[in-house]
Amino acid sequence: MCGRYTITVTLEELMLHYDIYYKYSGRYSPRYNVAPGQQVMAIVHDGEKNKLGELRWGLVPEWAKDEKLGYQMLNARAETIADKPAFRKPFERKRCLIPADSFYDWKGTGKHKQPMRIMLRSKDIFSMAGLYDTWTSPDGTRISTCTVVTTEANEMMTDIHERMPVILPREMEAVWLDRSITNTNTLRPLLQPYPSDQMFAYPVSSRVGNVRNDDELCIEPLSLLL
């Protein structure tokens, strides 16, 4: 499961990481509690260069009758991604990167779940593997949406949740974006849990459970807030 994440870097840092050198004309601001249904930053490759833009989180397949289907398509399981009708074609031809610098998950059960912030030990930007598609509404409105690919948890994550987003190694980002690669057998080896020893997690405030909270307090270690 991947249901919340952060991207708190500056636009300049984001563009430098993805080798984007044109002037980005869209809106951008650091986000501390990105949630499903919202517009999220994503990277695609147009055949010549990387492009930065926004996609709505919750994939609506081009063949869907209703855009509400997107609320069921927040994540795509790596194990079945090539078999599910909603994900099969995007896996072959419409792959994207969803930049983040951490994601949240909840540890425990029942009413006492503790939100955790999970990030790389380097604290660098990382790329979650994503798929995208464009749906056209009955009135002709085109809506571009995305989903985050997930895999089984690594050793560190197992104590928090059984699933985690697929985090692509830096050197594999270009492979995932390469539109000339349509053989999914070439891509399957990328859909692995990220190395556990390169990640860490710490508890944060339960305020991240409310999507209206999107500020620096969301990422403060719980010990500093008490």
Could you please describe the fold and organization of this structure?
By secondary structure, the protein is α+β, with helices and mostly antiparallel strands. Helices cover 15% and strands 34% of the residues. The protein is built from six helices and 13 strands. The strands form two sheets. Strands 3, 4, 5, 6, 9, 10, 11 and 12 form an eight-stranded mixed β-sheet that branches. It has a five-stranded antiparallel β-sheet with strand order 2-1-7-8-13, with no helix packed on it. 35% of the residues are buried. The model has no long low-confidence stretch (mean pLDDT 93).
Key attributes of the depicted protein:
single chain, 15% helix, 13 strands, eight-stranded mixed sheet, 34% strand, alpha+beta, 226 residues, five-stranded antiparallel sheet
Please give the structural blueprint.
Elements: E1 4-7, H1 11-17, E2 31-34, E3 39-45, E4 50-57, E5 75-77, H2 85-93, E6 95-100, E7 102-107, E8 114-120, E9 126-136, E10 142-152, H3 155-158, E11 163-165, E12 167-168, H4 173-177, H5 184-187, E13 199-203, H6 222-225
Parallel strand pairs: 4-10, 5-10
Antiparallel strand pairs: 1-2, 1-7, 3-4, 6-9, 7-8, 8-13, 9-10, 9-12, 10-11
EC number: 3.4.-.-
InterPro entries: SRAP (IPR003738), SRAP-like (IPR036590)
Pfam families: SRAP
